Batch of 3 targets.
Target 1
Amino acid sequence: MTYSKTVRCDSGEKARYQSLAADRLDFLFTTRVLPCPYLPGNLERKIVADLSEDRAEVEYERMIRAGYRRSGSVAYRHACPNCCACIPVRLPIATFNPGKSLRRVARVNLDLIVNILPSRALDEHYDLFRRYQIERHSGGEMANMSYAEYRGLIEESSISTCLAEFRLPGGELAAVCLYDELTHALSAIYTFFDPTLAKRSLGSYMIIWLAKTCCMEAKDYLYLGYWISNCAKMSYKARFRPLEKLDRGVWSPMG
């Protein structure tokens, strides 16, 4: 996903802000105010930073700690008028302790075959993505995403990015997970799955799998994007404990 049609500065000019990296300046932009896709009746605005330059990976390491999230070749965080419901969250791997229900999800999916692929768009994955969007997010901004836009979501990255596919024992594609590899963490970018396999709780399972991968690769955190307390679509993230939230620049355990 890109912001080429919506990104602008409120003044109509590029505005310079001090970058999170102390030795350079980046251009940051604000998006137009648009209807919020998560909370009906609310308005959404984002601060967006370009990640297409040669130091993007170093820069993003710092930005993700400050609550930014990557989409394509940009990083963004919310700066919505009169709302601060979107809370950046991450899972500290050393203290992650899956409860009974998550352990059950892990057992149910032990038969899945996982393949790690380069972040390249594939027709089979896009077909599953479309079915997932139609079934789960028919009114969302990604529901009508074309193949070219989907390809941008998967392939436009200046960060080390991987694609994990999960297949049933018979070879059928069950789920796909796009994630970034950072020095100290993994960051879940987007997941989608076969909506007919609801009993497997594949969305939760892919987070369990990412947490296990973090542990195997000695990563400290798994970044899970944003959490909104009043948004049912994000409620599953609260199942992962102890979750940390970013509040006023400080990471702390969620209550």
Note: DSSP finds five helices and 16 strands in the chain.
Target 2
Amino acid sequence: MSQPPGPSPAGRAPAPARPSATDRASAADRARAGRGATPPGPRRPTDAVGASDRRHSRPASAAVYRRRRLVVLVGLLLVVGLVAALLAWVWPGFARADAAPQPAPTVTVTAEAPTPTLEPVARTGTSAFATALPDTVLDLVLRADPATEAWTPARALEAYELVYADGEGDDATTVTVVAGQWATVAEAETAAADLVAAAGEPTDTGDVEVAGERAGTYAVTPAGDGLATVTWRNGTAVLQATGPADVVTDVYAAYPL
């Protein structure tokens, strides 16, 4: 006769229940699935939210910069060499055998202004025009300055005959300058034209300029025996210089009036 189930003898705990066939199959499936899974690898920076891959953001090394500078320098040297070759062999071609020689620089030697060896005579004229006439011109010194009435018929207000010389005696170089003052430019212009016509056919004419402005005209006329006459007008003043042809033009150029 069977006994009903009850507590185990001597108070022992009941044995655990055996798993069923279904439970054993499920456990086997989970084990097989676990053996085939790939374990998780190390976490990369890009796996983090907001992280970036820094593997290609390292700064270039000093060697890279040196190589770059070397490349730039070599390029510049090549460009300079090419330009120099073009200048030497193409244009202007100074390295070619048939190149035209460079002209020698012009050297200008300025002679010192001649120094007068005489003392000018005392002036006789006292007007503003008379005192404006120079005592010396180049190496010529005033030897006389008498007033003259030669130009009075031409309505000159005043006129003076100035004699300049570079020494005493007959061997001295002498230039005579007659200078007159007129009341208006028109009267002075007419008087100058008459003097030029009376002197003869001029060989040289031009404008008299003062501070870049035209103030009158000049004319150079041969006078025979190696002499020449220069007649010029400067505003209301008219002047006429006569002397050696190779000196009188220099006197005109140096005369301050």
Note: The chain is about 30% helix and 25% strand.
Target 3
Amino acid sequence: MTSTPPGALPPERARLASALRELRTGTGLSLAALAAKTTFSKSSWERYLNGKTLPPGQAVRELCRLAGEPEGRCLALWELAEAEWSGRGAPARTDPPEAGAAEAGRAGGGGGAVLAVIASVCALAAGGLSVVLVLLVGQSADSGPGAPSSAVPSPRCRAAGCEGRNPMQMKCGTDPRTLASHRTTGGAHLELRYSARCGAGWARMWSTRIGDRLELKAADGGPAHSARIGDGAAAQSYVYTPMTEARPGTTIQACFRPVAGGGRECFDARV
């Protein structure tokens, strides 16, 4: 195992633990409830989420399922952490994680088509280790027909009450739709997300650099919100803007301002 200063987590394990804590926050589950819905104990989850112990890959998959998030990114972080933990090089992934079917409803309601969309495949390199990262983006974050409905907690805000609030803390990030996605010229990944249960939208970014900023606003007016990448751990994690109220028919816009310059990149989507 790679040696680290006393009390400090290796960066690979710190990034994984941060991503897992974010997923757990999105589920709204306590450690006891998380243990009840998975094959791992409460004490095990406490160690996994604090980075004290490297979780098995199956634990990562089960948490992603409960949070309704694609598992590809966290599994890539897990492989880097596992390589650090064991002191060996991480093997390159030759097969992407199998995509679960995501149900996409047509705008205006009335039925839906079952499809899985591979939004992007990128290489994540750290310390000479290269891992293929597959991000699966659908119109719904549902992990498939096997996901239990009891894993989705009630939201803590609605419509105007969500304005400026954190989507994960308000439990709006457990069942969102991805309205649009965009990859910047610098390689950052962006998404516009919407929760019908909360009546609000937000944007998120990953594969970013320290100092990058993502701005969000509703096209018909209202306050603007933004999020900034403050450190290296955030640059390797999902970072969310605060939410804005979004009624059906509303257009919301996200603009990315890279720290390296080159002008902002904007995209929008209609709820």
Note: Confidence is low (pLDDT under 50) at residues 89-151.
